[in-house]
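Researcher: Please predict.
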Amino acid sequence: MSVEFFVRLIGMVVMAVGGIYLGVYLSRLADGPAELWGSVFALVGALMGLVVTPFITTRPIRAVRAKMAQLSAHTMVAGLAGLVVGLIIAALVSFPLSLLPSPFGQLLPFLGALVFGYLGVAVFVMRQRDIFSLVRSRFGGSSEEHGGDAGGQPVLLDTSVIIDGRIADIARTGFIRGSMLIPAFVLNELQHIADSSDSLRRQRGRRGLDILNRLQKDTSVPIRITDLDVEGVRAVDDKLVILAKQLRCPIVTNDYNLNRVAELQGVPVLNINELANAVKAIYLPGETIDVHIIQEGKEVGQGVGYLDDGTMVVVEDGKSYIEQTIPVMVTKVLQTAAGRMIFARPELAQRGERAAG
């Protein structure tokens, strides 16, 4: 039996009893049969109790719990501190206000408590970052010791970036200074993928578990499995966004959809693909690079090769150099949505043209 069903039964009984008393009272006023009036109002009360009770009991409580689950611990502590400060100020001004003539002496202290309580909560929540920074600097040392913004901010890892594997190399270089948090629900999703009946998904899941094993064995990489969860939310991406809001930390991912959703909700995102594109070497037209040509291009006579960072190089008249590493001269660099693409010509052909000229 669910809690809501139990509450409905209680509401039905209470409203039915109240309907009986109301029906008997109205029957005396109308000089009618008390049994009939009591029975009718009892049935109406029971029906109303069965329908209306959840909307005034369990539903509001559930909505408040869902809202509280999305608030960070810092926000709740700041709001509670602001409420206490506001009520203290209201208590200080309530005595002079109570000396005013009636009805102001009775109403203004109560209104003052409401106004100062609200102002205290609003001010403390808006300035919570400054307040906690001040408390840390006065009583808890530097923000680095507490994993604050100064080089120690934690980051949340999602499933896709763990499976990708590049996060292990990035973390080893020291670019991520804070601890990397892996929620238990991300680990559960990774295990579910590793147990999938589909061979490709199973390989991806096992690769992700291997990456986690590497990260845990590497003592230079701060990684931590956390049991933090978000109640009332089932989707892993939604849980990550809400948890990032609560912890005030960024999400590390290479999932485009999660990236967009997090940005729309004001959560900072560290995208591995954007980082990879940003650190690729920049080549200018006229520079010479060595390229290993591995296949034909789309156009006649073209050859295609790749640099160590994955950048595609399209070599004109490069078909005859397939499976060879040759120097090529860059003729054009094109930035596309998929990444950077370089067009080049064989340096050997350029030398031959200059010699013939």
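Model: Residues 140 and 146 are 8 Å apart (CA to CA).
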